[in-house]
Amino acid sequence: MTKAVPRPLDSRQTPNRGRGFATFDEPAKPLLVDDEGNPDFVAIQQSQEFKALRRRALVFIFPMTATFLAWYLTYVIASAYAHDFMSTRVVGVVNVGILLGLLQFVTTVALTLSYARYAKRRLDPQVSAVRGLVGIVEE
Predict the structure, then answer these.
(1) CA distance 55 to 23
(2) Which of 11, 42, 70, 79 would you call most buried, defined as having the most Cβ atoms within 10 angstroms of its Cβ?
């Protein structure tokens, strides 16, 4: 059944954005804000959207952090205990230790770029969904 007369907006609902008042759409979900209009952070934290955002962030952060720390500690341990290997000359005065040290910078940049790409593709849409819970509309 259509709604011929729009109901007064509850403070927890968003208006029909350009859809008119006669619609078969379900009513808007109540926003997760308190009586004063401030975000209800406990309710947001318990929402499925926020849990999905945390899960997506942790799926990237923990494995990449563990991988980078393992790589860095391997370099430090090799520098401390594998002097012969690290001092092996590759080209001129450049040895394995210098190359592996420079690769630390390369992996840091690669990790930063891969996180930026992951965040843009996987996290930012979920952040928009969480912000939508309190009525923040991004353009």
Answers:
(1) 35
(2) 79
- In this predicted model, what pLDDT tens digit does every residue of 120-136 receive, in sequence order? 999 999 999 988 888 87
Locus of tokens 């393992």: 70
Instruction: Tell me the whole-structure pTM to 2 decimals.
Output: 0.69
User: Does a structural domain hold residue 11?
Assistant: no
Q: Is residue 6 part of a domain?
A: no
Those residues of the chain that have pLDDT short of 50 are 1, 5, 11
Q: How many domains does the chain have?
A: 1
Cα radius of gyration (the chain): 26
The residue range of the domain holding 54 is 47-132
Predicted local distance difference test score (pLDDT) of residue 31: 80
Alpha carbon distance, N-terminus to C-terminus of the chain? 33
Residue 16 lies in a domain: no
